[in-house]
Structure formats: structure tokens, C-alpha cells
Records
---
Amino acid sequence: MIFNKDTAEKTAELLLQINAIKLNPGNPFTWASGWRSPIYCDNRLILSFPAIRNYVRDEFSKNIEKQFGKPDVIAGVATGAIGIGMLVAESMGLPFVYVRPEPKKHGRQNQVEGFLQKGQSVVIIEDLISTGNSSLLAVEGLREAGAVIKGMAAIFTYGFDVADQNFKKAKIDLYTLSNYQNLLNLAVAKKYVTEKEEQTLREWNVIPSTWGV
């Protein structure tokens, strides 16, 4: 679920402007999972653009407090959400930790890095939601560390049904600055894509795991 429509449209436009999101229906990308995709999202680019990272920080800060209430701690999911998570924590005047999808294989074998007390409330920052599996592994790690999860806030979601099911099963409320539907509507309105490309992009979003196979 998006925080609000205006933020969703503005965020989508900014992500397209800096090529954090690339649409290429004619020459699809291959994800690490092996899925073929006409879209690729790299929200880490946001950190290189001060005005845009500040916008994302401010939208997260005000909407997190409005939607979830002020938590005790902000947690960023490694590695993509560490930078923006720190900015949000600083803006809200809160402690920050980051969490891996799984514990380190060496040293203290930590999954959560930073100071976190059992019983503290946490809002998790994520950069991108696809199936939600890696994000929810981070949730499990925080719960095992004793955190009370108020919810997760992400920059962008592809809006897959499987992600909705996974978050519902984990009993985690997910809110995002933008999503695939708002992105696609904007891309069509601003002529980033043709009508034929729009159809391809919509078809992919319905069954992404077998698209283009």
C-alpha cells in the first residue's frame, strides 16, 4: 500500500529521471533469480542526488510517524537500505541499526548490527520489494533479537501478489513511497513508453516468474 498518491507519483517521476528505474520491454533484463524482466530498479542511485535523497528522507520521516507512530529505532535492510535508513533515523532523531537477511558467517555472526534492546519498537526501511522474501528474513532476524515490529516502509514495490501474501502471512504492514502501478501510469502519461510497451509491462507484472520464458 502506498502512503499517498501524490507522493507515489512524485517518487516515480524522480526515480525515472535519474534512471534508478529503467524500463526496457524490447531488451529485458535478467534478475539474479533468473526471472526475465522489462524493468530494473536500483534505488541506491538516490543517494548520489542530494535533493532527491532529501525528498525521500523527508517523505519517509513524516509518513512513518503518521502511519506507524514514532518507533524507538529505525532499522535499514542491508545493503540497499542502509544509507537511506540512516538518513531517516537522523531526521527523526532516532537510533539506527541495520539488519541482514541472514547472520554473518564469521566473527560474532550478527544479523542485527547496532544497539537494540529487547522490547524496543522498530520500523524497518527497505529500498525495494519484489517477492518480499529477503525483506521478511530481515524481519525474522529483528524479531529473534527481541524487537517489536511496527511495520516496514519501502521506496518502491513491484506489487506482486506473492509479496502481498507473504507480508500478510508474516503479519507485517507494508507501506511504500511508490509502486509499479503509479510508475506505469506516469511512464505512459510522460511518454517514457509506447502503448505497445505499456501492454508488455502490464503483462509481465501479472506473471513475472514465467514471463519471457
---
Amino acid sequence: MAEIILNVDVRDGVGTGGARAARRAGMVPGILYGGDKAPVAISVNEKDFRKSLYTGKLLGHLVTLKYGDESQPVIARDVQFDPVSDRPLHFDLMRVDEKQTIKIEVAVHFINQDQCEAFRQGGSLEVVRHSVEVKVRADHIPEDLIVDLANHKMGDTIRWTDLKGTQDVEPTITDRDFVIASIKTSSAAKAADEIEEAIAEETAAAAEAAADEVPATEQAEGEEAAAAEGETTEG
């Protein structure tokens, strides 16, 4: 079963007024829906909800909802926060069967960036998808999908087939091996390369000019020597 348990109360009051009353009482209001049953207004103790939320294993994962002696598996689909205080204001739970296949967004996690030579060369990671919608059994939802950057090179494009942790999941996009991220040369690195190229060009041009001047100088010196010799002979 799930690692997180949410002990909920059923709210009598619904709508904005009922939600405000729940918050004043130190609760977070929510809605339980799905499973061919009518939606139910519920609430959870805010302190307990915060503890579950900050584990990182609540949103988008299978959890156990308890109401009295009854319990059932649910998926936390959404949590709304206050834009100023970041206080949780509302949440949505969806009823599921543990063995039911569902569609859900799973986060993409990038690891070993410090072991990727491309970033030491000035490369930058451009992320196209921070999460991927997948089809997966409710009790097999992965914590995240992993991109190991250790062996990637400058210019690499990272696709779905490069991800780790996809054994039990199937992407909802099935018509292509879609892009997750790419490693590109940063603008700063490009500027540095352009400066180095300009310096190299100037150095090469200076060396070529210097090489052209040497024969001319030698020729002038030869002519001067020959003239001096002629004057000596005449004398």
C-alpha cells in the first residue's frame, strides 16, 4: 500500500464559505472524486497535510485516504497554494483501484550533471519537458523518470528512450521518440569561441605578413651590399 495516509473529515459546508470555514479551523479543504461516485467535500488537518506534501510523495502518487474505519487508495491530482504565503488552500483527490491503469504526469529528474564533459566546455541544458504524461498501473507509479547526463556530449538530444525508470510505464505520446532535453553551447561559450577564432585569425595574418617581409628585407640588404661592392671596385 501507499506510504502516505491522509485522515480526512467530510465537510458539511461546500463552496467558498465552507472552504473558508475549514481554513479558519486549521484544515485544508479538498474534493474527492472519480470511481463512478459523486464528488465529496473533505478536509485534512493542515499540519498533517503539510508533512505529507513536503515528503514529495503526495502529489501524483498513490496514497491511502482514511475516513473513520474506512480506507481507500487515491491519487492526489492537484494542490492549490496561496501565491503570497505558499499556504495550501485546496486539493483534489481521485479515487482509483490499485491495479487500475491511469494517466498521470511524472517528473523528469536530471542527474550527474557534474560528470558531463559538455558542461565543463560551456554547454547548457535546455529542458523541453520537465514531466511526461504516462500510462501506468496506480500501484507502480515511479517517483520520477531519470536522465543520467554523465556520458552525454555537446549537441546531444535526449529522448524518451534515453530515460531510466520507464520499465512499468508507457508514454501517452506513441507516434515518435519525443525530445526531453538537449545539450547546447551557451551564448557565453559561443562568444568565447568567436573571440578565440578572431585572435587565431589575426595571429595567422600577422605571421603571414611577417613571412612576406623577410625576403623583401633580405633582397634590399643584398642590393645595398652589391652597390657598396661596386663602388669599392671602381675605386
